[in-house]
Amino acid sequence: MTITTSPRAPRRDAAENREALLAAARVVLNRDPNAPLEAIAAEAGLSRRSVYGHFANRDDLLLELVTIGARRVATALATVSHPDPLTRLCLIASRLWREVENVRVMAVVAVRGPLASHTAATLGEVRRSVREAIADGQANGSMRQDVPAQLLARLVEDAALAVLEESARHPLAAHDGHRLVILMTLGVVGLGWRDAERFIDGQPKLQQKDAD
Fold it and tell me: How far apart are CA 162 and CA 184, in angstroms?
């Protein structure tokens, strides 16, 4: 007679320690992306040796942290929808900013560092939504039509990342960063700065306190 047993769930303290390490890494690496494991372990109230019970090395921890963050962003942006493609694109930019503005340095590391391709793959649906919004905007004439949609989508992404990088280097208030990332997005797709300002001010959903 063969007796089968179900896999044991990790001990509660082990699971909590793992979560504590990830939370500590999020804080420490957002302050200093080159911080060593010792600093992360200390922030979590654990020894450096205990880290290896959960992660093979620093890169392994960073990979999980980036994966969790990218999935969270993708999930949050999956609900963004609006019949007007210009508003939809701005809502994507708005939600993206809200999701990463508290972890700006780590967000830059995720999209510009050695794990960039992994992050890009995880955010594939977000990029598809941006391309679709731009294609729809070009079709109805609300966005510039002299640049292919796929290229324009990459330029929009670069503009949003430029704001993120600038705000990571030089602190930018959350409200200012939120508005700037939308202004840059609108500028890339063809609106002049005055028209972009009027567009944002005329859309309650694009105000930071209401943006969703």
Answer: 9
- Overall residue count recorded for the chain in this entry: 212
Q: Return d(Cα 183, Cα 185) in angstroms, integer.
A: 5
Q: What DSSP assignment string belongs to 16-63?
A: HHHHHHHHHHHHHHHH-TT--HHHHHHHHT--HHHHTTT-SSHHHHHH
Using alpha carbons only, what angle is made at residue 23 by residues 18 and 24, rounded to the nearest 5 degrees? 95
Question: pTM of the prediction?
Answer: 0.84
Kindly list the distances between the CA atom of residue 16 and the CA atoms of 12, 64, 70, in Å, as whole numbers in the listed order.
6, 16, 22
Q: DSSP letter string over the chain?
A: -----PPPPPPHHHHHHHHHHHHHHHHHHHH-TT--HHHHHHHHT--HHHHTTT-SSHHHHHHHHHHHHHHHHHHHHTT---SSHHHHHHHHHHHHHHHHGGGHHHHHHHHHSTTHHHHHHHTHHHHHHHHHHHHHHHHHTSS-SSS-HHHHHHHHHHHHHHHHHHHHHS---HHHHHHHHHHHHHHHTT--HHHHHHHHHT-GGGSTTT--
Q: What are the tens digits of pLDDT across the range 42-92? A: 999 998 888 888 999 989 999 999 999 999 999 999 999 999 999 999 999
pLDDT in tens, 168-198: 888 889 899 999 999 999 999 999 999 999 9
Q: Which two tokens stand for residue 84?
A: 């007007």
